[in-house]
Design a protein that fits this description.
The structure is a homodimer of 252-residue chains. In chain A, 47% of the residues are buried. In chain A, the strands form 3 sheets. A 5-stranded antiparallel sheet of chain A has the order 10-1-2-11-12, covered by helices on one side. A 5-stranded antiparallel sheet of chain A has the order 5-6-7-8-9, with helices on one face. Chain A has a single domain, classed as 4-Layer Sandwich (Glutamine Phosphoribosylpyrophosphate, subunit 1, domain 1). The termini of chain A are far apart. The first copy, chain A, is of the alpha+beta class and 252 residues long. Chain A has 5 helices and 12 strands. In chain A, α1 packs across α2.
Chain lengths: 252, 252
Amino acid sequence: MTYCVGMTLDRGTVFMSDTRTNSGVDNISTFRKMFTWEVPGERAITLMTAGNLATTQAVVSILDERAKTQADRAPGILTAPTMFQVASLIGQTLREVILGNRSGGMTADTGLFAATLMVGGQIGQGKQRLFLIYPEGNFIEAGDDTPFFQIGETKYGRPILLRAYDPAMSFEDAVKLLLVSFDSTIKANLSVAPPLDVHVYDKDSLHRGRMFRIDGDDPYYQTISNGWGVALREAFTRLPAFGFPEKGRSGG
Amino acid sequence: MTYCVGMTLDRGTVFMSDTRTNSGVDNISTFRKMFTWEVPGERAITLMTAGNLATTQAVVSILDERAKTQADRAPGILTAPTMFQVASLIGQTLREVILGNRSGGMTADTGLFAATLMVGGQIGQGKQRLFLIYPEGNFIEAGDDTPFFQIGETKYGRPILLRAYDPAMSFEDAVKLLLVSFDSTIKANLSVAPPLDVHVYDKDSLHRGRMFRIDGDDPYYQTISNGWGVALREAFTRLPAFGFPEKGRSGG
């Protein structure tokens, strides 16, 4: 599996992805799942991937090749005029790759080759936007009501996002929140693991923002990982104590 | 879906289950998923169910009928001599029901009728025991390393259990912990909902313990639900702040 989160804030978008891939439990590897493209001053685009690694690598390679091939008349992700068209283009590419695998005749099941993608960024005068792209190639967009998306192993890390997300939060707080969400997931699920890739896009910069990788032995990550367990237990202790209902109330 | 947790403690076992069932999102109902049997002073058994409602209701009805039929020579759950044999009996019954549905010829897919069960309790001189029973009828037992089981929609509520569980905790703290775990699940997933059924079994009592139901508008549940959001945000705020790495450290 995988865990990736893209989170829109008032001041920009923060992307975080893990790097664990596995085929069974005895074949694990580290692969980057976050990819960025930019035309400085004109566009900055970040893609994160979850699902079949052959599929997602093929999608990224095709996007890369088409972006570089001037001869190709269809717009690539470096020339498409809007983020909507970028999402559309990536969705089509994803569907092509998945269907292409099936048409090899080995299997009629496209589920095996499925992948789910997330793409965010900003182009020219457009707003920053964030899309979640399904294996079928269609997609949905984040908005004020649902300002972040998760792909992959999403459930463990969701409660803290629901409780602590705030669109006005600083980038530092957003990275901290994402680290807590990732740590909860990593603690519970073998298929998600550090190092974690981060990209912090400043709204309206139209440049690739701060990108860095957080290793499992990073001191701050360790502080969060250990500190969060302590903090959770303290928070739990401070909640009012439960008292058993009077016998009269008891059902049975 | 469903969410049920069985948690063994030094002083007994606490069971909690939700009551939401759904067939699609437009056909939701409330059904009890926790069932208890006792022979006072000799045994107390609690069963919780997740999965196809027709399957789980059939299993419970069959267990009930066989327990009451004196003519039936095979031991029922009220006569089986050990918790292991009770788990085995329930597993066989579950498999029978699932296979029986398939043999009707409508479908070869047993997955549709699948259910996962959890049974815990104590018989005579035996220890308190807790088993998780798979649709295939086989089962695993909780131990010191894995002292609690979850069935149904298990992921959202798992991180807090992993962090705050302590075998020495009081029953009151255990109920509080389970309410936090259930609340995180209920907030994130439509298919899990109150009221919540609780059974607190006192080790070595060999009697049904305190049983009660917690409604969604129960004041304590509301306190936990609202208080946990606040407590989480406070805990999050107290964690040390993230600082962006120096430019020199940043990757690409």
